Amino acid sequence: MSDNNYSYIPGSIEGYDLPLENFIPPLPKGTFPTWIEKMGLSKHLLIDPISANPLLPIELASSGYRVLSARSNPIIWLITEIAASAPTNEDFSTVLNKLFNTRHENANLFDHLQGIYTTLCANCGKMIQPDGYVWEKGKKQPTSRVYHCQFCADEGEKDISGFDLENLSRLGNLGIHRSRAFQRVVFGSDYEQASLNAALDCYLPRALYVCMLLANRLERLSLTKDQAKHIRAILLSVFNDAHSLKHWPPRDYRFLQLSVPAKFFERNLFLSLQTVSQQWKCINTAVKISYWPNLPDKKGGICFYQRDLARKNQLLPDNTPAAITTIFPRPSQAFWTFSALWSGWLWGRKAINPMRSALSRRRYDWYWFTKAVHTAFKRITSSLQDNGLVLGILPQYTPNLAFGLFTGIHTAGFELEGSAFRVSEEILQCQWKKRPALKNIIQTDVGLRKVINQFLITRGEPAEYHRILMQTIFEIARENGMPENLSQVNESDFTRVQNLIKQLLTETNFLKPFSSNLPGGSRWWLINEKNIETPISERIESILRKILSSKKEILLEELDREICKEFTGERTPEFDLVNTILRSYMSPELNNPYHFKFQSNESNDARENDIKEIKEMLIKIGESFDMQSTANSSVSWKDPVSKNYSYIFYPTISTEISQFLFKQEPSENVQQVIVYPGSRSALIHYRLQHDPRLASAVENGWHFLKFRHLRRLAEKDDLDLYSWVELLDNDPPLWTPPTQYQFL
Question: Which segments of 481-545 are extended strands (E)?
């Protein structure tokens, strides 16, 4: 197995809020600037040939870097332009006032829209604006409404009323508005039109009525260039609020398919208009924007370029140091189709052209992803010097998309230098370098059995299918197992790799499965346990203990980044494990859950005294039972008559317990006990959950005894051997899930 020294770079715990965040691939805050500094690319021109996340070029430009960003999806471009200008509330209120003051049916638009959504409070009977309405898929009217009454404080989900239904019926025949919405964008093949109709199916008639009412106002308002951008930003947010993909009750959900839930929520778009400015507060300081060929100056900024320019023109002056920094989007039928629809509503049919390929696409698989990545990178390859770097993140990754990503970039002329991922965060980070044009590449066969064997030996713990498959894909990419040319890639390549791995997993002389209720299912382990390394969880805990023992306090984010530097590539620790270990040794501040402080009872001296006390206590208790007690690293109780051991105790201040569990032969007559601080309880439970090999070993006559429980037992005046046996397991390791922090 080749060396993979790439260090995963966690994003900040407090991530970005941005418009359309349920569609756009997330950007881990701060990851790219840290990565760029680490690789010494601060003076390079940074190219984003995909532009999947509108905040990436802004984050880089805000850090003082020069960014060249492809201009493809009009919706992403609009978000970047608006966010980069750091708009104020006044910017939005100015155009909103103009919009609300336009006339509609003998009233201004403000009053008209307000009336569309008005409901009566079920408690006080006053007219109020609800948050929205709850619908069931296929029904012709809403089933309930959700509101917070400002007059009597009544709130929650209430049955739909006759007033609501009558108010809805006043809008008349709403079918004409669907026809108008379609006519604003219709063109192209039957399948393209079918795709647009599928997007329109995700809008209720009332929502389409409001969207078309607002879109038509674009042509009537007298606006400056900047005001036109701001009003389009407002309408974009409303169009996004108007679709019916939102589950009820609400849940965190990333929209990938055009599929309306069985129960969904219709938002009050009148309220959306009034609160829309809050969705655009993601950037505080404006950054400079220019258009190719006017590249950013040394102080940083963003330059947009048309993708096709990369094929027709030399994008950069000769000998310009450049690197690629990009986010690869997971294929999203929903977002790409909506982007075409919204672009047509905002700018007209011509704006749909960049999205036409998405409308005609019927299937998005790894093979399509390979070709898409290859095409995007082939356009820009000539702009990079030999050995030029690519820093890329694939959020919401899956093994098949990872395979397509590695294949597409390899065939575009780049070599994988390193990679790392976190399953819980669904983030895959990779680094490539441009292959010199004269370098001769020979595709090699990678021994998958050897890869899996070495991976598990190095890990020291069973692994789920997902990790085994990802590790295999990494090795194929690093060991030149990918085709050199796109023409050599076959649609069956990924299936072939999958089948080979599944075949190896069924070989009973090679691997054995452990069933698991955790996400990812069963874990696999080696039949031959020769030369197995210490479990990765214990190595992580050991290093973290050393880091924490030298500090009085630490930020969770700081510790996470520090430990990821120590454990690279496939050894990258999951955030949940880091969080659980930290909470086992330190306590969070009351006013800042991310700031942890050292506890005096965790000092080396205090824990050495604990171990000494525990051993003395065990010896004393054993002697009170007429046992022969001996102590060294462990404490033993021996029956003076049979001369056989009855109990062996292993005091420890950590959860590094594999040295006990895997090196002691199980015996029916000997009870083996791990004695540990109660603060490690959650960590022990976590490890037993995530390491089925460890959990299986524990079942062979092992007990867990907390320091505090032992102290309580020692204080009992009537403690005898019988009650000892009865009470020993009365305080088992209990697990309370550690606080979860969302990385974006």
Answer: 511-514, 523-526
